[in-house]
UniProtKB/TrEMBL annotation:
<dbReference type="Pfam" id="PF17678">
    <property type="entry name" value="Glyco_hydro_92N"/>
</dbReference>
<protein>
    <submittedName>
        <fullName>GH92 family glycosyl hydrolase</fullName>
        <ecNumber>3.2.1.-</ecNumber>
    </submittedName>
</protein>
<dbReference type="InterPro" id="IPR014718">
    <property type="entry name" value="GH-type_carb-bd"/>
</dbReference>
<dbReference type="Pfam" id="PF07971">
    <property type="entry name" value="Glyco_hydro_92"/>
</dbReference>
<dbReference type="InterPro" id="IPR008928">
    <property type="entry name" value="6-hairpin_glycosidase_sf"/>
</dbReference>
<feature type="domain" description="Glycosyl hydrolase family 92 N-terminal">
    <location>
        <begin position="54"/>
        <end position="315"/>
    </location>
</feature>
<keyword id="KW-0378">Hydrolase</keyword>
<feature type="region of interest" description="Disordered">
    <location>
        <begin position="797"/>
        <end position="818"/>
    </location>
</feature>
<keyword id="KW-0326">Glycosidase</keyword>
<dbReference type="GO" id="GO:0016798">
    <property type="term" value="F:hydrolase activity, acting on glycosyl bonds"/>
</dbReference>
<feature type="domain" description="Glycosyl hydrolase family 92">
    <location>
        <begin position="321"/>
        <end position="802"/>
    </location>
</feature>
<dbReference type="InterPro" id="IPR012939">
    <property type="entry name" value="Glyco_hydro_92"/>
</dbReference>
<dbReference type="InterPro" id="IPR005887">
    <property type="entry name" value="GH92_a_mannosidase_put"/>
</dbReference>
<dbReference type="InterPro" id="IPR041371">
    <property type="entry name" value="GH92_N"/>
</dbReference>
<dbReference type="InterPro" id="IPR050883">
    <property type="entry name" value="PNGase"/>
</dbReference>
Amino acid sequence: METHRTRRKRLGYRSALVGGGVAVAVGALLAPLVEAPAASAASRADEVRHPVDHVDPLIGSAGGGNTYPGANLPFGMIAWSPTSTTGDQTNTAAANGYAYDTTRVRGFSLTHVNGAGCHPGAAGDVPIMPFVGEVDSSPTADTKDQKYAATFSHEKEKAEPGHYRVGLDSGAAADLAVSERAGVADFSFPQDAPARLLFRTSNSLNGSENAHIEIDRERHKVTGWVLTGAFCGRRANGGENNRKTYYRLYFSASFDRAFSTVGTWENDRLSPGATTADGGEGYLTGADRAGRGSGGYVGFDTARDNDVRMRLGISYVSLAGAEANLRAEIAPRASVADVAAAGRAAWDRTLRAIRISGGSEPRRTAFYTALYHALQQPNLISDTDGRYPGMDGTPHRVERGQTAQYSNFSGWDQYRAQVQLLALLQPEVAGDFAQSLLNFARQNGGVWDRWVHISGATHVMTGDPSAATLATFYAMGVRNFDAKGAFDSLYRQATVPHPDGLSDKGCPGQCEGQRPNLAQYLESRYAAQDTCHCWGGAAETLEDSVADDALARWARLLGRTKEADELGARGGYWRNVFNPQATGAAGYIQARNRDGSWVTPFDPASDRGFAQGSAATYTWMVPQDVPGLAGAMGGRDKAAARLDGFFHKPDGSWSVRGGDPLRYDPTNEPGIHAPWLYNALGQPWKTQETVRQIITTVYGTGPKGLPGNDDLGTMSAWYVFAALGLYPQAPGRAEALLTGPLFPRAVIAPAGQRRALTIDAPDASDTHPYVHAVRVNGRPHDTSWLDGSVVRQGGSLSFDLADRPDTGWATDPGRLPR
């Protein structure tokens, strides 16, 4: 196990930063993802040497991707990024504070969550705004962001891993760089105008219960905190349940020069010269919140020096923790350039877990930016001394052998692809994350919440994704967590009803029951739509079937045969919501009532009984038993024909961009595994052409390069796996499904491991997506799936690719994925 010190060293930080150099700028590439055929053999000389050079943080910042471009580190606590405004101080232009098409900002916030779908999403704590002019009214009273905000142009914006810079049209500029829990900023101002820095302490994206600021003129410091939470608290489907507080963020900022003026504000009252203020905004929006809140400002004399340097640390435990984090991670005289260089090096090392060769520059940019987004989470919430805020509202210290406490778990999204990539590339972080979730569950009365933000249980979405996640970690070889304790706890959640399971509080989108109405589920063997106390009975049944199958596989690995048999049977409960006569033409997954009747009227395009998806999409969500699903549909050939119709319009043209509830939706999770189902149906060449079609038409570079919400790296992880030619077969397993790789060569070398998996595909190109032959460790391989031992232990994987389908490769009925 690594210590805190060794882990910081691995990520590129020492207790004192030295050296310098500014990271190479990464522009917003807009090139299409098309390339000429590759050379006949991949050359190691063409290997990407510095992946960080190919990252564009602006990808996904438009078109609903909800990424943010600001400075962060892999799994870091601080994420310093702009908060944009469209003229409403209680709202923002995108779920996570930044929208590429909105070029007006009201501050640079210290915390963000990548790609969450709720608007506003979460965090965005303590926006800090360089303002040119006199503060002669309360910034909170500027409810339309007309005065204390500024526009900018993208020509004056540079976003790169660990570093963000922008020049505002007001003449001010911000240059930000971060370590894991701290940061350094240079704010510059025009010399011929007043220079002020606003601390909007109460103005988190979702509002706040309270906030506090203190200005120390003698020590040139500003400190404070915000008491907030409320993830998804404004959402119509259950959001009121989350209008609550569950964490406090502390900050400590010190400056390299004296303040020329100071002041604070509370609501509409400005107090020039004051040094303390308190007050929150509440968790509503619009007129119900406008004009509420508090903050403070400091001013500077820029007659001789118009550049102000600020050093800042944050903590979820205490002000002392924030200051200790800053001391431990950034040296007193470290410049923005120093910190940016260290951050660039940290990202470069992390991204080098996959080294690709060949491919066009747009391909490389899309790939490494996807990897960058996928490895932003989970996020540190423990300080350098190991203390962190518990889910019970009190501070805790990391467990013996645990490196750090992590949070930000959008389980319903992440268990399908992102957690597999984390386990593959960062197994030590995955283990610490597993232990973190177990710690939270123990602090939460044994309940594993499905969407954890900082130290809050938000209950968002449906199913039991923690079971699928930890079972996947264990299957993929992650061992640095209390596996027995975690399994026992998750097994209890899956078998012992909890009082919350009978509550409708927060339903449908944030139902408090993590295994809702479990007694009825165990009796009926499906979640009844009319009594399930869940988002949708059919979706809940499918999610729990996936989770139970994953737990069963984990139990077998632990030698728990009785539990494995019990849970394995429950993994087949999906059959109880498959109605073979749902329509006159075909069977579908369909919700049922407790008396056994089907919920009618039924429409495959409807989401009745489902969560963020239609019956047509959810019918394919049986990754743990594709042969069984095919049998229910009338056999593999009939199932494959139906799958053809899921990806194509009646005229045969592709339908993979979303918008049609009867067909594939690349923007949301329930169906993202569907392209790989052809492998188990005996038609793997269709997986190859479908995945390639999605890669080349749905994903790309530029701000609109993601199909939809990145969902804490899930959509980006999908792309990484697809480009490598691998995809997780099912939760709770290490096996991978195969398709044609995008690059001539890739070397997967997990952090801290001596093993590596080399993938060679010399003919990889846009014209050669089809697999003709595969060799594993030099031996012919005639199946469209890869044994989990290869994923865990490494080896070599060689593809012979072709420009036309090979309808004979990997089609032996006895050797299909099961």
